[in-house]
């Protein structure tokens, strides 16, 4: 039995089977490459699901984390610490929001956003008749905890776990009339991903997003933008909503925020921060601990120093061009969608899971989304050469599929 096989079998023996994992055991990473325990090299266009933006083994990132580990890993939120101040300052500076709360995951950021929205309406309306309804989008993804699942517009994920959190209505993404039709005087928030990720890489239409923003302003409904996947430089702006010139009332982030250290956040604008969660309303033992905050702080610093956002903006058109050429060449590839380094190509009538698996055979990590989309969310440091190499590997796989 190979080393990989042994590890996989033992893992399956002890770890709850909630994932159909690919048969690869990764051991280490360097730059945009991963290596499995057999020593095989992979070009990584998945980045641990849009997380590892800086590439693997970034020395400055590693050194900062090591130094923080030696100093202090955890204190609880009963006390102040410098990394919290620093990380919060940077989140606020780059999001244009007013106050931030650090969580341990994306799903928890969504949970906090939901609580903040409900508390805002509760304080505004009084405890007798608070607006408590949230409008979320079909084909959205916001995470797996019960609250986050309740606003995830995919009945396949929801069905076995009913009853879910009440007061959620679904509308169609990029269909303003359907959103408007769902609004009542009980609506407290409208929640959407600026670019839908898991659902199949759908950017919001500018007209849709600005209409939703306007509607929210008119009715004092809170706009929650989930930037967990599309934020942190991925689309060629710090946050995807920057492309639209639109600020949410609440923004959620995670994934690349800590580049692999588990950390998420929700940030509130001034109006929402002033009248929502107060002492005693929300908490977490780990959330925003010194190690997590050192990661966030370092990620922002390195993004600045390495000009990551500019690099995405400059290099993404090349990725788009190469993907468009694939779509032209293969009949079963019917379109490309995306922004920056968050791209998807639609594979009609071919199982994308098989393509992803075959790509691993060629030493290429890509992801799927939405059932029929090949998803490309590489580390944000990839170069044109990496893109050429990815396309060459992918063409080998696509050639076998036809
Ligand atoms: C991944 C993701 C989440 C959930 O984040 P977790 O860290 O897995 O809980 C929520 N929203 C979006 C848009 C995501 O891509």
Any overview of this molecule?
This protein is α/β, with parallel strands linked by helices. It has two domains: 3-54 and 307-401, Aspartate Aminotransferase, domain 1 (Alpha-Beta Complex), CATH 3.90.1150; 60-305, Type I PLP-dependent aspartate aminotransferase-like (Major domain) (Aspartate Aminotransferase, domain 2), CATH 3.40.640.10. It has helices spanning 3-14, 47-50, 59-71, 82-95, 106-125, 146-150, 155-158, 176-182, 206-219, 270-274, 290-305, 308-329, 352-361, 384-401, and strands at 26-30, 33-36, 41-44, 99-103, 133-137, 168-171, 187-193, 195-196, 202-203, 222-226, 250-253, 264-268, 333-339, 342-347, 364-365, 367-369, 373-376. Strands 4-12-11-10-7-5-6 form a seven-stranded mixed beta sheet, with helices on both faces. It has a four-stranded mixed beta sheet with strand order 1-2-3-15. The protein has a four-stranded antiparallel beta sheet with strand order 13-14-17-16, covered by helices on one side. Strand 1 and strand 2 (33-36) form a beta hairpin. Helix 12 (308-329) packs parallel to helix 14. It is globular. The two termini are 33 Å apart. 48% of the residues are buried. The mean pLDDT is 97. The structure holds pyridoxal-5'-phosphate.
């Amino acid at each position: 039995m190979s080393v990989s096989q042994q590890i996989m079998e033992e893992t399956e023996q002890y770890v709850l089977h909630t994932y159909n994992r690919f048969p690869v055991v990764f051991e280490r990473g360097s730059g945009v490459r991963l290596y499995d325990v057999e020593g095989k090299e992979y070009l990584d266009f998945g980045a641990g699901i849009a997380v590892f933006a800086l590439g693997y083994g970034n020395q400055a990132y590693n050194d900062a984390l090591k130094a923080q580990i030696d100093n202090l890993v955890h204190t609880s939120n009963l006390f102040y610490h410098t990394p919290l101040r620093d990380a919060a300052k940077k989140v606020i500076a780059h999001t244009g929001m007013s106050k931030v709360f650090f969580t341990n995951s994306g799903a928890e950021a969504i949970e906090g956003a939901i609580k903040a929205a409900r508390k805002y309406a509760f304080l505004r309306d009084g405890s007798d008749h608070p607006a408590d309804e949230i409008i979320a989008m079909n084909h959205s993804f916001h995470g797996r905890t019960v609250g986050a699942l309740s606003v995830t517009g995919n009945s396949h994920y929801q069905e076995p776990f009913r009853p879910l959190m009440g007061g959620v209505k679904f509308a169609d993404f990029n269909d303003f009339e359907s959103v408007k039709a769902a609004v009542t005087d009980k609506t407290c928030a409208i929640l959407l991903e600026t670019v839908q990720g898991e659902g199949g890489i759908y950017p919001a239409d500018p007209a849709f997003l600005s209409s939703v923003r306007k509607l929210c302003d008119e009715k004092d409904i809170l706009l929650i933008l989930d930037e967990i996947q599309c934020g942190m430089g991925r689309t060629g702006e710090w946050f995807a909503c920057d492309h639209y010139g639109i600020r949410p009332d609440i923004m959620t982030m995670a994934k690349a925020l800590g580049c692999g250290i588990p950390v998420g956040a929700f940030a509130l604008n001034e109006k929402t921060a002033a009248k929502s969660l107060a002492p005693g309303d929300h908490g977490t033992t780990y959330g925003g601990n010194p190690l997590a905050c050192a990661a966030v702080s370092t990620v922002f610093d390195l993004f600045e120093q390495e000009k990551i956002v500019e690099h995405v903006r400059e290099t993404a058109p090349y990725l788009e061009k190469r993907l468009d050429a694939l779509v032209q060449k293969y009949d079963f590839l019917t379109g490309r969608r995306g922004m920056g380094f968050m791209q998807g190509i639609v594979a009609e009538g071919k199982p994308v899971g098989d393509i992803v698996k075959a790509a691993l055979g060629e030493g290429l990590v890509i992801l799927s989304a939405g059932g029929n989309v090949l998803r490309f969310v590489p580390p944000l440091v990839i170069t044109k050469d990496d893109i050429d190499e990815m396309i060459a590997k992918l063409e080998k796989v696509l050639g076998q599929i036809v």
